[in-house]
Each structure stands twice: as C-alpha cells, then as structure tokens.
Amino acid sequence: MQHGPIRPYDLSQSPPPPWPPAPAPARPGPWPTVAAVLVGCWAVAVTVGGQATGWLIAQVLLVAGIDEPAWFWPVGDLVAAGLVALPAGLLAGLPRSVAVRTTGRAWLIAAGALGVFGLLRAIPVSHHEGYLAALAVLLALATMLTGRLNRRGQQIKHSGQPVEPSQSSEPDGQHIEPSGQPVKPGGRTSATGAGSPATGFAIAAGLALLLPWAWIGALGGPLETVLAIGTAAAVGWFASILLDGRFWAAYQRHSDGRPAGGPRLVLLGGLVAGVALAVLAAGIGQPATQLAELIIMPSAGFAAAALQALAQRRPATQRRFATYEAGSGNRPGSAAPTAWLVGLAALGPLAFTDPEEISLLLLSGRDVPFWAAVAAGCSLAVALLLGLGYGVSFARARAASPHRWIGTATAAIVLVATAGVYVGLGQPGLHGERLLVVLKEQADLGGVSTGQSGQAGRDARVREVYQRLVATAERSQAELRRDLDRFRLDYTPYYLVNAIEVNGGPVARAWLSRHDAVDRVLLAPRLRPLPAEVAVTRGDAAAPSSVPWNLSMIGADRVWSQLGVDGSGIVVGGSDSGVDGRHPALSSRFRGGDDSWYDPWNGTRSPSDRNGHGTHTLATAVGGNDVGVAPGARWVGCVNLDRNLGNPARYLDCLQFMLAPFPAGGNPFTDGRPERAPQILTNSWGCPPLEGCDPSALRPATAALAAAGIFFVAAAGNTGPFCGSVDDVPATYPDVFTVGAVDRNRAVTDFSSRGPTPDGAVKPDLVAPGAGILSAMPGGGYASLDGTSMATPHVAGVVALMWSANPALIGDVEGTWRILRDTATVAAPGQTPDGCAPEANSEGAGLVDAYAAVQAARR
What we know:
The active site is at residues 576, 613, 789. By secondary structure, this protein is of the alpha/beta class. It has 3 domains: 31-154 and 190-424, no CATH class; 434-524, Alpha-Beta Plaits (2-Layer Sandwich), CATH 3.30.70; 549-831 and 841-858, Rossmann fold. The chain has helices at 31-64, 72-92, 98-118, 128-158, 198-216, 222-242, 245-249, 262-281, 289-296, 301-311, 335-352, 368-394, 404-424, 454-476, 478-486, 506-513, 549-553, 556-563, 613-622, 648-659, 699-707, 788-805, 813-822, 840-843, 850-858; strands spanning 175-176, 182-183, 434-439, 491-494, 499-502, 518-524, 571-576, 597-598, 634-639, 680-683, 711-715, 737-742, 766-769, 773-776, 782-785. Strand 8, helix 19 (613-622) and strand 9 (634-639) form a beta-alpha-beta unit. Helix 1 runs antiparallel to helix 2 (72-92).
C-alpha cells in the first residue's frame, strides 16, 4: 500500500462533529425572551423610580421639619426588592431557556441584595462611618454565601448529570486544550489567568469612571475614606460573583445551542448585567449616594461584558494552537475584570460625596447636588463610550488577544491621569467632620451685676459675663487640652459654651465621650469643598420708590417722620451668610474698625456675601433707601452659614464675636472687647440635628447673652403650619425673642412655624411681615423674599428704634420684651391646624407695632 506524506491537522479549526450527530435542541420560542424584557423594564422602573421617589419624599420631610422615620428606607427597599424578586424568580424557573433562567437568577440575587442591604439605611446618616463598615461586612458575607451556593449548584449539575448543550460544544461537556487534556466546565485556563490583559483594561475603565469624581468631589475623613474604599471593593467582589462565568456563558449560545459570537455576549449579556447592577446599586450607599450609583454602575454592564469577551481569548502567542471559537462558550469567564470595573465605579459616590450634602437645602445654585449630577453624568458618558469602544474592540470572533502589557500600560496611564486631575484640578486632602465636645462644667452667671442702667451699665454687664466665661473655660479645659495635645489632635476652644471643637472621627469621639470632664460630644459637620465657587445670588429688582408695605404696616415710617427716631446710636449684629458691605443700602452704616467683621468659614477680611440671605435680612433691620426699619443704626456682621448650612461650632464662633468682638486674627479668649459688643442681635437661622445641634447645644450661649443685656432675636422657622414645628434651636429657648411671619393681610403665613416648643413653651413671641419682603441683595440690587428670616429683622429694627428713643432702656431685655408684647396688634392665625392651642402658638402676642412700642419706650 502506497502512503503519501502526512498532512498536519489544522488546530485552528474546531474538531469534527461527533457521529452520529446529536439532535438539535428544540427552540423554546419567543415568549421567554419577551417575558425577560418585560421583567427587566419592570425591575429598572421599580428600582430607579422607587429610589428617586424615596429620596424626594425624605427631602420634603427634611425641609418641612418632620423627622424621617427610621423604618422609612428599610421598608421601602424591602418592598422594592419584593416587587423585583417575584417576577425574576418566575423567570429563573422557566424551562428550556438557559439564558432566560440565568437572567432571572441574576436579577433575583440582586433583588435579595437590595432588600438585605437596604436594612442598613436605618443607621442615621450622621453615623456614615458605621454604615460603611456594616455594609462592607454584609457585602462580604453575601458574596461568600452566593459563591458557595453557585459552587454547590455547579457540583450538583455536573455530578453524574449531562451538561446542557448550551454550555458546551463537546458532547461530554468538556473542551479540549491543545495538550489534548479535557478541562471541565468552570475550570481556569491561561487566558483568564495571568496571561490575560482583561484585568488591566478593567482597571483602566474603572479609573476612567472614577476620574470625574476625583475632579469634582472631595474625600471625607481618614476613616471614612478607608471604609469607602473597602466597601467599594466589597461591591466589586459581590458583582463578580453575581456576574460569574456561569452567567456570561449563558449568552454565548443561541437558543438552539449554536455557538454565538462576541457581539451577542456584549449586547445581550451587557444589557442583562446592567439591569442586575441597577438593582444592586439601589441598595448601595445611604440615601442620595445610591442615586449616583444608579446612574454609574448599570451603565458599566456593556464594558463588563466586553471585558469577558476579551478574557476568553487566547493570547496572540497561543493563537495558532487554539481549539475553540471565540465567544463560543467553551472558555470560562474571569471574575477579576468585573470586580475591578464595578468596584472602582462604585467608589466615586461612596468616597467623594457626603450623602447629607446631596440635599434640597443646597439645590439652589451650583452646589453639591449640581456637581454630583455633573460627575454622575460624566461617568455615565464614559461608561457608555467604554462599552462601545471595548465592545467593538473585544467582541470580534477570531481576533487574537492583545499582549498583557498593553492592558497594564493602559491602566497605568489612566491611573496617572486620574491622580493628576485629583491633585491639580480637584480638592485634594481630607475633609471630614469635626466634633464639638461640650464639657460638664458651665459658667455660673448668677448674680451678674445689673448696676447702672443704659449703655454704661450694659457694658459693665458684658465685661463681667465675658470674664467669668473665659475664666471658667480656661480652668476646666486645661486637662482635656493637655490630653488633646498629647494625641496631636487639632482643636479650637470656646468659652460662650464651655466646649472644644476637635478634628477627629469616630475613634476620637468614643474616647472623648468617656473623658471625665466631658458631658457629651456633638457632630460639627462641614461642607466639602466644590470645584468652583458658588455664583453670587443677586437681585434684579430696583430700590423701592416709596415706603414698602411691610414698613408701613408696623408703623416704622411714622416713627421716623412723627417721632424723629431712626435708630441712631444703636449697633445691630447680624450672623448669617455674610453681608455685602458695598451695597448702597448698607455701606454707610457699617460700624468699621478692625473688630466689626468676622468670617470663621473663609477668613474674608471685609464684609461680603455670596448667598444674599444675610444681606437681605440685615438690610431689613438697618438698611437705608426705605428698606430698613432702623436706617440710622449701624451694623457689624459675622458669617455663620456656608452655602446655607452651619454647625454648632460656627454658630458659637459668631455668637462669641458678638459678645466680645476681636480684631482679625485675634484670640477670642484674650483679645475680646466686650465694650464693643452690639446691643441687638438678629438671627435668621436655626441649628437642626442635621447640622449637629441637640436641644441644649446653644443654651448656655443665649443665657450668657441675655445676662449681658444683649437682645437676641431669632426666626421661628419655616416648617409650618404643623403644630410643634418651632423645634430648632435657638428659637426654642426662653431667653430668645422668637418671631413668626405674617403676610399683607396680617395673617400668619402657612410656612411660619408654630408652637409649642418640645418642652411645651408657647412660641413664637411675636409675628412680623415675612412674605414678599423687598430688601437688598449682593451686587447693589434688590429682591423680594419669603420666610420668618425676613420677619425677624423687623423686630430687631424695632428694638433699635426703642433703645435709640430711650437709651436708658439699653440692656433691659425683660423690660423691652414686655413693651413689645403689650403694644402688639392683632394678627390673624392663618391656616393653623387644630391642636396648636392656645392661639399664641401661631401668632404669639400679635403683630409688632413699631410706633406704639417706641412711644411706650419713651414713657
């Protein structure tokens, strides 16, 4: 027998089919696919719509001053999880469609994660570090449990049972390596291990998704940042188990068992993965953070699928020995690319934002909500571009895998770029919360000499109060300051409330809470910096051409014209967002000197205001051009609000400055000038628990100011018409004159907060015009605003008129209170709900009457 030369077998081709050929599996029909599409749309609608609606409801409750129930988010997430899990579970049980069953299984697991992780939202937002730690632990446990169940399912499937045709091209459920050795389904090969560049490209993609947050956002404290990184890593780990090799293999074959190419894996697998990641993202992060995660994580599904297509390729050096068809489902998936991609995508919102700051309270202007939306939008665009680019590059059926060093180099380049953006264009550094440590011992101000009446007597009282407060703080804080120095913790001492602000996290808080000298530790939250300054809020209205209705309603114009009193000789202090010192209505009334302006937030050396709230309120009290009640009075200012939020430490900074002003850069303990204290303080702000205050946080401060003879006026709040809505300090304190708001019809406005206070006291004390009030705004313009903030400076201006008319009344806080109440006129209660009785909890003693009050003060 003649033999010719032996022709080598072409290993690039698939092995010949077995004989006799296996019958083709029956097609399941279109209905399982249709059901999967409907369930997917339902899952996205429930998760996205539910989370957005829940956040909006929570924000409305916050603005309305209603406490959010602890069960609100856990119950809502459990309901959403159930609504997704029920149809997903039905999909997971459909017969004869491996892809649909796999789809249902992934969505079912994600829904279970949403329900479980959502329970952690019962942890208050103020304990963000505790939430992150608990979430990381729960994610790790869920990952290990899910992985164990996956492995058990595969063992059951392959222990003596035939492998489904859709998962293997070989009749025995195995594929043949070039060595001739079979590899069982789920086994590892070199393409998914050290030789694959997929992990490098995944890291590059994840860093690209993180880059907008590194530019726009800012990190929190050290522990918070470490926990955010750990939580993001746990999210990526869980996602890699959720979207494991078994998941990706289901989209590499058609319903009839024929091998499918890479495009099917990228398009179909990426879409199903995106829905699963959307359901998972709904449970990641505290309220507000999860909204950003919902935008970013699902959009990474297509890139994750493309990376799986790449992970299943042979390296170029092994291409000629390949015995498989790329995208045929013969090779297992790789967990590392999905873990890196999803983990880095989740890191941005977790680490670079504070959930408390994505709030309706900061919605106006380009503040945190705006920039968080920009960062999420940029990440979404990057994710979609990556999905398109990676999909086109990696889904080609017979293309060789690039060298591993290309993926590594790409990741290194993107890492350098991200770090450069963070350092050069971002807000580098740590910007965590601080602590206000309140000591047990507070100064005893009993028996402060009332002595001489009028300005001289008032100055003596301020000086005595200042000296007692400082002496008590210096003595009682000595040991604690030494301990803080020993542990190298930065701190700022206070005397108005015997307290110390400490730059520390949860560990420092736990230690300080057990200190012998400490009564309690409060949070003093600070807003993280922005990539650009918030635009100045300006007014577009012209100056009034005649006396506005609000001034004529209380008779201020009659005081000027008939009684010849305009507030001359009186100084009013305004603590707020700042003051535009160049505004025509205010510039000539600034007291001047080196101790009339203080900005503890930004350290500005001259009066300025970007928000406009402080300019508007102070001008209503002392402004010229027919906008101020007491246009002859002068003013001093302090910034206690930064971008419309404050904290107890910054409120104390300004109140200390008002008690004993000090020059720029001076020490409040040693450089205070109590004789320069303003006589009256107008305060259109409140400190809710969100900002770190508890009911008694500022109580020693207002008591000390009253003992010093300084008249303290505060806004009731804008959370009406609910009964008991006067609940934020300092409006609740008995030595603070609390003011509600009325409209043109003398009716209490719906937004004006009602009493009683939490301790049962009747509040407000009086009402004043607070709807549609025209006053000054930064830049020289004017605007009409609503709020009890607008009503409060009316009363401060009336007191300035009273004390200007009768200087002997200066410092007589009790006498002035009595006159204001006795001369008030009737006001309509407005739409006050039942249960606010007596009616004084709506309108107090009535509407302030400047003309009658000044006349009474002269007697």
